[in-house]
């Protein structure tokens, strides 16, 4: 289990990248960013923390996209050690859950390293100038989903970003499985 740093590094600039999604399309920051910002989510298929909230991730991604914020998920784990995270399984999951966002494969793990991603899920919310404004959790869920009426922290934060270009001062770190780095 890993926790992201407890304090958002407000204003940190998103690092450009180009990754392929589960359908073979290539994406970069400029192609992903919406007029009001960008939400990047480091997730994977096998993590019990992600599995506990994947339906909420899909729901919240649609709500965030409706705010004019682009959304993408990035899988950076080493599938040699975690076959459930293979490209074929990423494709299956994206299809099965009808992802409204691209599911990108970080095969070199360079993007995760450059962003300082530490766990799955790990959320990075940027404003329209691609300055970091949120590095918190989705909601109070852990290995089990939170109550259905749990505060939707990610959605509330990204709404604030869409309206003001600034994230909330108070943020609770995300918790999940550590990124599975190649040795």
Strand line-up across the major sheet: 3-2-6-5-4-8-9
Q: Which CATH class?
A: Alpha Beta
Total domains:
1
Low-confidence stretches: none
Q: What's the CATH architecture?
A: 3-Layer(aba) Sandwich
CATH superfamily: Glutaredoxin
- What string gives the helices and strands in order? EEEHEHEHEHEEEHE
Distance between the termini: 19 Å
Question: Can you tell me the CATH topology?
Answer: Glutaredoxin
Q: For the report, how would you describe the main beta sheet?
A: 7 strands, mixed
GO molecular function, one term: antioxidant activity
Pfam families: AhpC-TSA
Protein name: Alkyl hydroperoxide reductase/ Thiol specific antioxidant/ Mal allergen
InterPro entries: AhpC/TSA (IPR000866), PRX-like1 (IPR047262), Thioredoxin-like_sf (IPR036249), Thioredoxin_domain (IPR013766)
What characteristics describe this protein?
single chain; alpha+beta; Glutaredoxin; 7-stranded mixed sheet; 3-stranded antiparallel sheet; Thioredoxin_domain; 21% strand
């Amino acid at each position: 289990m890993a926790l992201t740093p407890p304090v958002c590094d407000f204003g940190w600039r998103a690092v450009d990248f180009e990754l392929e999604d589960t359908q073979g399309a290539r994406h970069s920051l400029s192609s992903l960013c919406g007029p009001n910002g960008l939400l990047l989510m480091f997730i994977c298929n096998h993590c019990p923390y992600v599995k506990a909230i994947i339906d909420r991730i899909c729901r919240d991604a649609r709500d965030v996209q409706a705010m004019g914020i682009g959304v993408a998920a990035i899988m950076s784990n080493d599938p040699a050690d975690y076959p459930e995270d293979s490209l074929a399984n990423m494709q299956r999951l994206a299809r099965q859950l009808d992802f409204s966002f691209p599911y990108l494969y970080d095969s070199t793990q360079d993007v995760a390293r450059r962003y300082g991603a530490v766990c799955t899920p790990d959320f990075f919310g940027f404003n329209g100038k691609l300055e970091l404004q949120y590095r918190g959790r989705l909601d109070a869920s852990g290995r089990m989903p939170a109550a259905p009426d749990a505060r939707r922290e990610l959605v509330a934060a990204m709404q604030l970003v869409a309206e003001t270009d600034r994230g909330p001062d108070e943020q609770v770190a995300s918790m999940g499985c550590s990124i599975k780095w190649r040795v």
